[in-house]
Amino acid sequence: MSDTVHPQTGQPVGPPVDATPAARPGPATLQGRFGRVEKLTEAHAASLWDALKGHDQIWTYLPMVGPFADAAAFAAWAASCTTLEDPCFYAILDAGGRVLGVFALMAIRPEHRVIEVGYVTYAPALQRTPLATEAQYLLARHVFETLGYRRYEWKCDSLNAPSWRAAERLGFIYEGTFRKATHYKGRNRDTAWFAIVDDDWPGIRAAFEDWLVEDNFDADGRQKRPLRTHGERR
Questions:
Q1: Would you tell me how many other CB atoms lie within 10 Å of the CB of residue 88?
Q2: pLDDT tens column, 52-87
Q3: How would DSSP label each residue in 205-227?
Q4: CATH dotted code for 26-216
Q5: What residue spans define the domains of the chain?
Q6: Residues 74, 106 contacting (CB under 8 angstroms)
Q7: Tally of CB atoms within 10 A around 35
Q8: 190-199 CB burial, b ≥16 within 10 A, e <16
């Protein structure tokens, strides 16, 4: 993306941008081959709790969320999430209809066409599966191609190594770490920032779609070749 010159002052400025706002996220069903993504409802809570219960490590890096004492506490939290517009929560369901994860679109700035994916919460049964990756692809495609955003962010605790690896594998570019950015659950958080911009998306989409083809998986669902995106560290 090259700079241009201000017509009056001669100073370098950014190139012109279409100032049309992006759409706000809302109810949507994003169908994939391995499962689907849909707007979170209270009806998802019981199945999601069955997948998440007993795995307290899932909640360590989620600010102000979990772990939950029981199904009722979890259902109350899930119900509260269904009423929010920012973050806007989505459930991840496998082909059999089990709810195995949740994530959200958040920090929504339609006027600047900037949005973030967060609250990424995968049950062990979802982790390291084709659906885990496909769900991220479906949401990213929705963000860029349906809602019209130009910047898609991922942020995590800088000590959250699995989240950092996932961001880079999925094509997000590391942009820096904000020291002492916040604190949560009584702990400091240095926040690592990552992003995909609309210029990146065509190549990342092609990488996802090449990886998701049927012949890339054996009978047990194991990949034959890894996902390759430009977000990965070399």
A1: 21
A2: 999 999 999 998 889 999 999 999 999 999 999 999
A3: HHHHHHHTSGGGB-TTS-BSS--
A4: 3.40.630.30
A5: 26-216
A6: no
A7: 26
A8: ebbbbbbbee
